[in-house]
Amino acid sequence: MTHTASFIWSVLRNIMLCCILLILLLLQSCQQDIISDNPTLQLRFSHDSLLFDTVFTQMGSSTKRMMVYNPHKNALLIDRVEMKHGKSFYMNLDGENQMENMRDITLRGGDSLFLFVRAEIDPLQSNNPVLVDDTIVFYVNNKPQYIYLQAYGQNVNIIRSNDKFVQYNYLRLTNDKPYLIYDTLVVAGNLFIEKGTTVYMHTGAMIYVYGNMTANGSLDEPIIIRGARTDMLFDSVPYRVASGQWNGLYLIHLSDWSKPKYELNYIDILSGSIGVYALSEDATSCPHMSLTNARIHNHSVYGLVLQNVDATVVNTEISNCASYCVYLAGGKHDFVHNTIASYFGYPYTTINIHNNILREDVAAVYINNLSKTKASTNASFYNCIITGARKNNVVLATPLPDYYEGSFTGNYMLADTIRAEFAKQNTYASDSDTVVFRNIYYLYKEYKYYDFQLDSLSPARGVADSVIALSFPYDRLGVRRKSRPDAGCYEYVIN
Q1: From the candidate CATH numbers 3.30.70, 1.20.1090, 2.160.20, 2.60.40, the one assigned to the domain spanning 156-469
Q2: pTM as predicted
């Protein structure tokens, strides 16, 4: 065969192959366009139900997305799509949001549609969460298929202003229904928060208190201050594990104002940029803070900052902050039976909205003398756990270290030896102490949350000073401490 004949044969063969391929594609396309009336053929959904977390009646929910698939070769005719009750949920099917027009939709074989659903619940008669449900029904060949919808509706008190600034001379937050704070809330006098009150903070919202603050929760009815998002950040990640959702709680003492008091008991402050920032302009007249049985967790900057503020902190968990969990600068501070743990970003599973990165030199506790005067910062730690993802979690950053006054007794610490006299009074960890707690990071697949209660193998068990513990016989959860008590705010219990 000549080269010319060979070339011609090659061209003809390629043309024949293309024609065959084209015919096959046309046959497949025709098959896809053939609408089957077989009642056994059904659609397939990416979810058979959609659960919306708490929906504030005045706001509505975020939109959830799912897929509607035709897994068959032939096309299916969706006779109609309807919402069974049509009161609280709204849907959009592939761009079509008019429910009455969701009829006679042809879905080709192997193709899919997007389905978007949101919840909007009218104000309720009850101030407690109310379950609202509905059903989306797809009819194919007169056979129904169902997607079940559920949401909890919740009435809230909204605090907001067109000026992004709301001021009160006196404010009492009650527990009849939650509060949603949109803007900067300023209380120039006294702020009272009743036990069992929940305060949701919108993106960027903050609270400033220039007077007294009293927030007395209880074990059964704690006070909760948290971000306003109750839905999912990703499919397997709830917003409750995302930091930086709101700004922070600021307690400010101006030098020409009377000295305030801060009493915070059984209060959870969660997922902001800063948990509590207490500052006094007057270093000679420090206000006093009592922080007991609290939880300050998951903040993208600081957990607790005390600057020229005296404080007694007992049975409190301060955990997972991108910068210092505890920052002390001026004042006298007594920390007793607290768990201070800095695992933010370890092992790269902490969700941080503002993408702060935990520096290698960030400790769990940072103690700083602001001036070169003796004992401008006097901080003592008794029966605490101070640990984290870094090798050194206690830093004494004083201009004159010998001027530091305070003590460390009965603590479990992952830290370099601070002073030689502390070595015999505390238990120091090795470079790795990952067995201290039950769970130090968020497990996506297992859907497990950070749990700073003690592991059965925890080296913090039985190391606390028993004499000091006598004054604090119960832990944060009401568990009675043993004769050989554990360090931290949680006494070990069998899980």
Answers
A1: 2.160.20
A2: 0.83
